[in-house]
Write a structure and sequence with these properties.
Length: 114
């Protein structure tokens, strides 16, 4: 997660939005930032969700503190998802045999004790 955050921060610093005052950042700036992460840095859906999970609350706090009137990240992630036709891959639970094999390979953990 730290590496992901560092990549996103470095990409943001290189963007035009980084030179703007907080009150001047708009929805289109956030959307352009997200698009740059996808196109230039090859970020995947789960990584983008993580970035949005960090960025959105920061803007929410600045709204509550009165620095800005609206959250420029509201709805940006949903629009990005639609425009890139992202579907998260389905995750499947391991079968009992697979779980046991996994646990046997984990040092210090015995199957049936976790």
């Amino acid at each position: 997660m730290a590496a992901l955050r560092a990549r996103a921060i470095n990409t943001f610093r290189a963007s035009k939005s980084a030179r703007k005052k907080l009150s001047k950042i708009k929805y289109s700036d956030v959307k352009a930032f997200y698009t740059a992460l996808i196109r230039e840095k090859n970020f995947k859906p789960n990584s983008m969700e993580s970035i949005n999970t960090i960025l959105h609350p920061v803007f929410t706090l600045t709204v509550r503190d009165g620095y800005i009137r609206t959250n420029p990240s509201d709805g940006a992630m949903q629009e990005i998802k639609k425009s890139h036709n992202w579907e998260k891959p389905k995750r499947h639970a391991l079968a009992i045999e697979e779980q046991e094999a996994f646990m046997e390979g984990a040092p210090g953990i015995k199957p049936g004790t976790g």
